Recover the amino acids of this structure.
């Protein structure tokens, strides 16, 4: 498959999958509809390529739903930041012309909201004040248990992430190109399973995982994908020692932070959906691992990470929405089956080996799973 064909297929299937996820992630896809106008309990955000107009500057402590309408020409993102750019909640890949909703649990304090047109840079920011007291969602014993169970999963994955990233770094520093190539998708598997947690911590995620296309002008490029390009394209990693050292240092920092931070039930619910967004906009399109074409390793990891978050919440969902649990089980099984036909030995077929029809089948499976997963956060926030 030629690079031009890959880009064409990437655009086609990325927008197809993203449109499905975006539509199902918004209770009101009409940018002129009630969500965009700000229903009670919802905060409308009018995003464009040059503005980020948040309807209010102050909200009550507890859960807040933001309805973000993208009136610009670029795909955008929306974040709620605590001091130090700690991400309290985020929604990525908001396609022009559509509205997506984000539910955040915010205790009293000072925050910033940010829209990121083009999904780069620090974003267009506004101050947000949260006042009053609230009973946290983890006051519910089952939600507290779900969060604790998921944090144990994050620890198990992050522990192995450290081991496998160190093996990758050692191979890079030793100049062992073929060994490093083999270790690249393996190390990234553990990263991709817990990426929504990793993304909480400001600039660490892009330092580790930014693609060349993600960089703002003048921004330094480090992390997995810089080394990926040198392994597969320049075929020279002789100068990558400092980048490898920074990669393992950043991974150690993020693992420490991930294991120390206190997650919320909405981190699980939103994270499960974010991982499917990752599949739709990076793995289906081939844009994530554009030189190695190892996107299906990431696809599988994102799917597993999403399922782990949902499984942690299962006792709550069985109590509050048993029909949804049945649908989730069916759609996870269907997505796993669609991906499973591409297994090759201990790994997966390369993205550039897949046909247009095969990519569409994978895209359809992710769309079908994305719809019920988009319903989890409102159920958790009840």
């Amino acid at each position: 498959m030629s690079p031009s064909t890959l880009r064409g297929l990437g655009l086609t299937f990325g927008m197809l999958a993203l449109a499905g996820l975006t539509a199902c992630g918004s209770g009101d896809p009409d940018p002129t509809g009630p969500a965009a106008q700000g229903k009670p309990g919802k905060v409308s955000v009018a995003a464009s390529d040059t503005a980020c107009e948040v309807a209010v500057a102050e909200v009550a402590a507890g859960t807040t739903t933001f309805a973000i309408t993208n009136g610009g020409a670029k795909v955008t993102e929306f974040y709620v930041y605590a001091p130090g750019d700690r991400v309290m909640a985020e929604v990525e890949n908001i396609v022009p012309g559509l509205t997506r909703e984000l539910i955040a649990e915010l205790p009293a304090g000072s925050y910033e909201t940010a829209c990121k047109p083009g999904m780069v840079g620090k974003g267009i920011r506004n101050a947000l004040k949260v006042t009053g007291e609230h009973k946290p969602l983890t006051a519910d014993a089952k939600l507290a248990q779900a969060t604790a169970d998921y944090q144990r999963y994050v620890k198990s994955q992050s522990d192995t992430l450290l081991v496998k990233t160190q093996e990758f770094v050692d191979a890079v520093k030793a100049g062992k190109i073929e060994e490093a190539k083999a270790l690249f998708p393996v190390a990234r598997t553990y990263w991709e399973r817990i990426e929504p947690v990793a993304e909480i911590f400001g600039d660490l995620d892009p330092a580790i995982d930014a693609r060349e296309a993600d960089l703002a002008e003048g921004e330094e490029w480090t992390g997995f994908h810089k080394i990926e390009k040198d392994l597969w394209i320049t075929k020279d990693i002789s100068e990558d020692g400092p980048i490898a050292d920074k990669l393992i240092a950043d991974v150690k920092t993020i693992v420490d932070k991930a294991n120390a931070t206190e997650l919320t039930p909405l981190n699980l619910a939103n994270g499960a959906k974010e991982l499917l967004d990752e599949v739709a906009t990076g793995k289906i399109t081939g844009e994530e691992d554009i030189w190695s074409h190892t996107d299906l390793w990431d696809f599988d990891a994102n799917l597993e990470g999403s399922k782990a978050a949902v499984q942690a919440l299962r006792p709550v969902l069985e109590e509050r929405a048993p029909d949804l649990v049945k649908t989730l089980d069916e759609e996870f099984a269907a997505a796993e089956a669609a991906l499973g036909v591409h297994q090759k030995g201990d790994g997966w077929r390369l993205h550039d080996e897949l046909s247009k029809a095969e990519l569409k089948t994978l895209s359809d499976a992710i769309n079908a799973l994305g719809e019920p997963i988009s319903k989890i956060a409102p159920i958790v926030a009840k």
Observations:
- The first helix runs from residue 3 to 25.
- The radius of gyration is 20 Å.
